[in-house]
Structure prediction request, 380 residues.
Amino acid sequence: MRTTLQSLLAVTALTGLAHAQFSLSEILINPPGGDDGYEAIEIRGAANAALTGYYILAIEGDGANAGTVDTVINLGAHSTGSNGLLLMRDSSTIVLKPAPAAATTVAVDSAAFTPDIENGTITIVLGFGTAPTVSVDLDANNDGVLDNGIPGFTTVDAVAWTDGGASDFMYAGALGGFDQPNTHAFTPDAAYRIYDANGKAWCWTFADVLTSATAPDGPFTFDFVGFDFAGGLAEGFGPQQLDLGNMNGRLQFCTDYYGISTANGGTQTMLLDAGSINANGFALVVGSLTGTKPGIALGSLTIPVNFDPYTSLLLNAPNTLVNPSVGLLDAQGRMTSKFALPPASPATIGMTFNHAAVILDSTFSTFKAVTNPTTLFIQA
Ligand SMILES: [Ca+2]
Ligand SMILES: [Ca+2]
Ligand SMILES: [Ca+2]
Ligand SMILES: [Ca+2]
Prediction:
């Protein structure tokens, strides 16, 4: 009996691993100017891994068409490259900058990317099994719930975002993925995955992207000018642009929401991944209302927040507005903190909060590292 159970568990674990190895790592669906030639979706997995049976789906989220399968991209004939990356493109005519790594498999499927992937509220799904047919409506009564899931199809990863339409729906969360709420007024052009120190998919970032008139083919820089970015991206820290077909850059501090309304209040979750090298150490979350540069000098380190009254407030009242602001890292070197803004806090309208974490050793005596800053906008 025990042997049977053990072998069953082993098989289950192996199956889970086999299917958990692929993730959506980068999505560009709305570049500046026309979309043709630039739409691309990057998949990350093990090296030289076949995607037999796998598909990417785009499910419409806008109003009356919510739930309609807009796009089906068959990955079955492709494998990841020796670096674990597959980049699906709508055309090979334009040479992206930066160029995909030589080790990346770059595949083109113009038909599947026609028409273009819609730029409004959209759910992108990676999975395997029987793919639905293009134009099938998986949410016939438009109540935001897929009527029967995706029949015959197993989702391994999903992400969704919204343009804020009142009757729009995102379906990724219910599929085990991530729905990015529209709490700051921009609709992402691109989604960019952050992986942890072990290469496991960890959190999402989102941004509008900018190109220049003289370099329309890239680099696609994140829009730090219009403040259209989210998830832990920050100007001057961590990834600054898309890197389609190249390994994604790292962040150690990531967030979910990127804007909180003063009327409704809300909570921003901050995820810290200091790596297992900092297991059981301490983290101190510091903050600023006056930006990230020049920051606070701390020996040879620089904390990327400027010292101001908010910095003092967090230090003098630990584990209140940010909780925990002083905490213990777990065995993976992680900690989750929350910033909570009560409803009806009009005095904060227009404020931009930056937070960063300082990593200390397990005796709370040695500063070991500082993270990138995160950003939070406070809206009316
Ligand atoms: Ca598009
Ligand atoms: Ca439904
Ligand atoms: Ca529908
Ligand atoms: Ca990439």
